[in-house]
């Protein structure tokens, strides 16, 4: 998957928002363990809007980690 497609899909999942929470990312990835998702995909990323992360940064990390 291309980064731009992943960003578009995540934004669609979050109703057009530019930020995604751990809970939303966990659901988006079809997982149930939020701690695992946070450790695997959000480590090293800084929350921007309270407890939410900037979708383009998250998409890059998801593609990087796999």
Overview of this protein structure:
It contains 4 helices and 2 strands; from the N terminus they run H-E-H-H-E-H. By secondary structure, it is mainly alpha-helical. Helix 1 crosses helix 4 (55-65).
What is the structure about, briefly put?
By secondary structure, the protein is mostly helical. The chain has a single domain, classed as Orthogonal Bundle (Recoverin, domain 1), CATH 1.10.238. Helices cover 56% and strands 9% of the residues.
- In total, the number of strands is 2
Q: Give the CATH class.
A: Mainly Alpha
Tally of contiguous helical segments = 4
Whole-number tally of structural domains: 1
Question: Key terms for this structure?
Answer:
single chain; 66 residues; mainly alpha; Recoverin, domain 1; two-stranded antiparallel ribbon; 4 helices; 56% helix; globular
Helices, strands, pairings?
Blueprint: H1 3-13, E1 19-21, H2 22-28, H3 34-41, E2 52-54, H4 55-65
Antiparallel strand pairs: 1-2
Helix pairs in contact: 1-4
């Amino acid at each position: 998957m291309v980064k731009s497609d992943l960003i578009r899909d995540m934004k669609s999942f979050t109703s057009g928002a530019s930020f995604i929470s751990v809970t939303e990312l966990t659901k988006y990835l079809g997982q149930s363990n939020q701690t695992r998702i946070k450790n695997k995909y959000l480590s090293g990323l800084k929350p921007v809007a309270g407890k939410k992360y900037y979708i383009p940064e998250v998409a890059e990390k998801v593609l990087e980690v796999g």
